[in-house]
Design a protein that fits this description.
Elements (H helix, E strand, L loop, with lengths): L21 H28 L4 H26 L2 H15 L2 H9 L8 H11 L3 E4 L5 E4 L1 H10 L2 E4 L5 E4 L14 H11 L5 H11 L10 H17 L12 H6 L17 H15 L3
Antiparallel strand pairs: 1-2, 3-4
Helix pairs in contact: 1-2, 2-3, 2-4, 8-9
Length: about 290
């Protein structure tokens, strides 16, 4: 028997999933989905309760969104065809623990790419380490998704292109999100109420979605057809709960993003020199040269 290491004990052990048989993987996912739903629900409720503490409310809402992202990542593992799953589950569990990947994942539920290839293009735009901002792209800024998260969480020394240090003072405006639930949360509730989060529901979801490998040209028509098949199968199996409502069909058909098990969420490191060249070209173009 192989000797265990200290890293084998404690939190962040979801990376053990690739080492399990696929049936056991689904067992573990089925056990975890209600835990993640409860975690997200508690955080959203706490956020709504902090009427006079905008920063705290925004932090809790952001934490809830990352828990929601974990649910969606696990469900994409389930939607991944079994023959492909063993090679993709490792990277996907890496996204499960990555702040940038999680934040992009949950935000992506509102995107409308024409197919998987365009979806990767959208993700690429959001995983760059730095980008140009301003009227003509005159400012070089860090990845906004991560910067927005960390500047809200931490008081810290920051620098811009001129190298001058300055303090970031965490703050947040009155969060409009507290007047409505995140789109991705409504989607997760719909999947739960339709019985997709049960152990039998995961088997049905896996079986139905394994018919198509969402690699490049697969699109929303393909996804909606599989969603319909999945819902019919869940109904025939008697898994749809009494809490399910007709209005939940909209999020399932229209807001459950194309499966992203083939999408690369790895951060793209953009060299400063490349951005400076691009910025100079923008400025010359603006001047008519």
């Amino acid at each position: 028997m192989e000797a265990k290491k200290s890293d084998d004990i404690g939190m962040r052990r979801g990376r053990i999933l690739p080492n399990l048989p696929q049936t056991k993987q689904l067992d573990v996912i089925a056990e975890g989905l209600p835990v993640l739903m409860k975690s997200a629900e508690d955080l959203l409720a706490a956020s709504k309760a902090l009427d006079e503490h905008h920063r705290g409310a925004t932090i809790l809402d952001g934490h809830a969104r990352e828990e929601i992202a974990k649910i969606l990542i696990l469900m994409d593992i389930v939607r991944c065809p079994p023959k492909l799953r063993q090679s993709r589950i490792g990277p996907m569990m890496g996204w499960f623990y990555d702040h940038l990947a999680r934040l992009i994942y949950v935000e992506a539920q509102s995107w409308r790419p024409v197919d998987v290839k365009q979806l990767q293009d959208y993700v690429d735009d959001n995983r760059k380490s730095h980008y140009l901002e301003g009227a003509v792209g005159e400012y070089i800024l860090p990845n906004w998704t991560i910067y927005a998260r960390e500047s809200l969480l931490y008081a810290d020394i920051v620098t811009h292109e001129d190298g001058e240090p300055m303090w970031n003072e965490p703050d947040a405006l009155a969060p409009a999100f507290r007047y409505g639930e995140p789109l991705a949360w409504r989607l997760c509730q719909a999947l739960r109420d339709m019985g997709a989060f049960t152990r039998a529901g995961l088997d049905i979801t896996s079986s139905i979605w394994s018919q198509i490998d969402f690699a490049e040209t697969q699109n929303w028509s393909d996804a909606r057809n599989l969603t319909r098949e999945m819902l019919i199968a869940l109904q025939k199996a008697g898994l749809i709960t009494d809490a399910a409502r007709e209005e939940q069909l909209g999020p399932l058909y229209n807001d459950w993003q194309l499966p992203m098990y083939r999408i690369d969420f790895t951060r793209i490191s953009v060299p400063l020199a490349d951005l400076q060249v691009e910025r100079d070209a923008n400025l010359w173009s603006e001047m008519g040269y």
